[in-house]
């Protein structure tokens, strides 16, 4: 084995161990959150129960908002390990680790070994990436597949001797991205290459990325499920391709409308504790663009990563539907640019390093903490959060920001990564407490029903659907006064006996059958003041209430 391969293997072993410990720490220390995590657990649970691996169902209803790959992975985990908090988060942690390895490989290939290490450390310790490595959402998964597509395809352009295997890998990643979250898996990489090609004069080179073998591989991976689900469900095509792709992007039908600048703020907050690198890399990139085409291989790669990040930001900023995780495909190129910029500044000496980061980080994190103290008391009670954990988190945040002031040069980068790791581990301890205060889990109330309900009893959600409730109860629930994401499934099948307006619940409550009802306290109070239905309160949390008619 050559020296370079031996070095690469050693690097990968070190990174896998470090990233596994980092992202694997505490993944099972909190319940599923509503609604998103519950959805990505309940759908695969139903797959394992019904044996139908083609048509996704949420609470027994057809659910076509997303493709099926992530559901399959989750269902496989249930089959192998069972349904646990930690097991259902394994795939998200796995892809978070894979993202770190991907940016290491890209950094090592297009820049240097040290850039790869820095990029992996920066990506892993950014706040938004870290948070999404702990939530059961498919956005991080599709971000890694899209990033794999772009890195491999760009590598095929730069290394003609390895073009064919790299292109096959890129097409495979694009197919898996499409099978994870739809057409965005090919639209976004294609748009990035088109913009990069037009701006840099490399447009004609893009045509060399077309491959008949790659196209065949893409359809072999992505097409079978789409064909089967359309065959079994004629109503799938319009809802999935038109409503969930075109209309979701161009209209506010999903009520996720935010200002154009929404993602600019998300990037600044999500890039803590590396925020101040953004200004420096922007200046460096502007100089690169002004330099025209007389760029080294490293600078050309940096230019590609910049346009990758810029297109992702512009694409989702123009969208009429905005959610925080949408911006995750921007984070891998931003980590590579940040690592490249940081190393350039460190090579130029202490003065440039301190300008690059340090003081700005300290000010930004201090401002975020101050704003947090201003806003959090209106949302949560600090009495419910351990003061030691809160103070420790703040202390580590400040230490992280100040590290470069005391450790300039290459050593400062490693010290900062270590401090950021400690800060994020403390945040991991604090986050469950904050989450439970802002969005309490339905689990305590669900456990009461699971212990007392008989098979013939009915279980209702009133004016709300707690998507993790079927997971805890291991059975479907009925819904009164709520449609939202289940509207399509309710219209596609005759489920009026299970899904009804809130008024349809009152005769059932007055009947002989025992009924358990979950509701938010605010909804419960409104109905009680207006309808006075017979009931008995069994338990309540800070947000929710459980009552029965018997």
Describe, in plain words, how this protein is organized in 3D.
This protein has 550 residues and is mainly alpha-helical. Among the domains are: 369-439, no CATH class; 443-548. Helix content is 66%, strand content 5%. The protein is built from 26 helices and eight strands. A six-stranded mixed sheet has the order 5-4-3-6-8-7. It has a two-stranded antiparallel ribbon with strand order 1-2. The chain starts with a helix and ends with a strand.
Descriptive keywords:
two-stranded antiparallel ribbon; single chain; mainly alpha; 550 residues
Average the pLDDT over all residues and give the rounded result: 81
End-to-end Cα distance, whole Å, is: 74 Å
* Percentage of residues in strands: 5-15%
Q: Over the alpha carbons, how many angstroms does the gyration radius reach?
A: 25 Å
> Major sheet: order of its strands?
5-4-3-6-8-7
The largest sheet is: 6 strands, mixed
SS class: mainly alpha
Low-confidence stretches: none
Helical fraction:
55-70%
Apparent shape: globular
What's the topology here?
Elements: H1 3-24, H2 36-50, E1 57-58, E2 61-62, H3 69-81, H4 85-88, H5 90-110, H6 113-125, H7 127-132, H8 139-158, H9 163-181, H10 184-200, H11 203-206, H12 212-232, H13 236-250, H14 262-270, H15 276-290, H16 297-317, H17 331-347, H18 350-356, H19 359-375, H20 387-406, H21 410-438, H22 443-452, E3 458-462, H23 469-473, E4 478-480, H24 487-492, E5 499-500, H25 505-510, E6 515-520, H26 521-531, E7 536-540, E8 544-548
Parallel strand pairs: 3-4, 3-6, 4-5
Antiparallel strand pairs: 1-2, 6-8, 7-8
């Amino acid at each position: 084995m050559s020296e370079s391969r031996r070095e690469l293997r050693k690097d990968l072993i070190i990174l896998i161990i470090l990233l596994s410990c980092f992202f694997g720490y505490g993944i099972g220390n909190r319940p599923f959150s509503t609604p998103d995590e519950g959805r990505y657990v309940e759908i695969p649970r139903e797959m394992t129960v019904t044996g139908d691996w083609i048509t996704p169902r949420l609470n027994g209803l057809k659910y076509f908002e997303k493709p099926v790959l992530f559901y399959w992975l989750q269902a496989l985990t249930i089959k192998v390990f069972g349904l646990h908090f930690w097991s259902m988060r394994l795939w998200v942690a796995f892809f978070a680790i894979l993202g770190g390895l991907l940016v290491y490989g890209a950094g090592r290939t297009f820049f240097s070994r040290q850039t790869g290490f820095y990029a992996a450390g920066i990506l892993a310790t950014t706040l938004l990436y870290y948070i999404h490595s702990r939530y059961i959402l498919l956005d991080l998964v599709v971000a890694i597949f899209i990033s794999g597509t772009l890195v491999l395809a760009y590598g095929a352009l730069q290394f003609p001797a390895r073009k064919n295997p790299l292109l096959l890998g890129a097409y495979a990643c694009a197919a898996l991205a499409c099978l994870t979250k739809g057409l965005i898996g090919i639209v976004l990489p294609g748009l990035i290459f088109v913009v990069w090609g037009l701006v840099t004069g490399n447009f004609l080179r893009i045509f060399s990325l077309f491959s008949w073998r790659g196209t065949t591989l893409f359809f072999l991976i992505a097409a079978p499920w789409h064909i089967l689900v359309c065959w079994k469900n004629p109503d799938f095509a319009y809802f999935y391709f038109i409503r969930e792709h075109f209309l979701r992007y161009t209209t506010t039908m999903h009520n996720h409308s935010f200002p154009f600048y929404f993602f600019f703020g998300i990037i600044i907050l999500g890039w803590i504790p590396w925020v101040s690198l953004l200004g420096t890399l922007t200046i460096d990139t502007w100089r690169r663009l002004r330099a025209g085409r007389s760029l080294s291989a490293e600078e050309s790669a940096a230019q590609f990563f910049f346009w990758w990040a810029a297109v992702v930001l512009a694409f989702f900023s123009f969208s009429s539907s905005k959610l925080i995780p949408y911006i995750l495909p921007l984070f891998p190129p931003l980590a590579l640019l940040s690592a490249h910029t940081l190393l350039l500044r460190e090579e130029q000496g202490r003065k440039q390093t301190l300008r690059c980061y340090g003081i700005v980080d300290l000010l930004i994190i201090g401002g975020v903490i101050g704003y947090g103290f201003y806003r959090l008391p209106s949302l949560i009670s600090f009495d419910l959060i351990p003061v030691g954990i809160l103070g420790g988190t703040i202390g580590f945040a400040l230490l992280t920001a100040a590290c470069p002031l005391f450790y300039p040069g290459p050593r400062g980068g490693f010290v900062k990564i270590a401090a950021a790791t400690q800060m994020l581990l403390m945040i991991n301890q604090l986050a469950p407490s904050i989450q439970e205060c802002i969005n309490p889990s339905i689990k305590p109330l669900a456990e009461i029903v699971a212990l007392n309900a008989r098979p013939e009893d009915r279980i209702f959600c009133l004016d709300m659907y707690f998507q993790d409730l079927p997971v805890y109860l291991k059975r479907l629930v009925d819904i009164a006064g709520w449609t939202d994401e289940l509207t399509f499934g309710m219209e596609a099948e005759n489920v009026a006996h299970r899904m009804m307006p809130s008024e349809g619940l009152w005769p059932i409550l007055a009947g002989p059958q025992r009924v358990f009802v979950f509701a938010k306290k605010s909804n419960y109070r409104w109905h009680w003041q207006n309808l006075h239905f017979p009931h008995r309160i069994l338990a309540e949390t800070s947000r929710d209430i459980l009552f029965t008619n018997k």
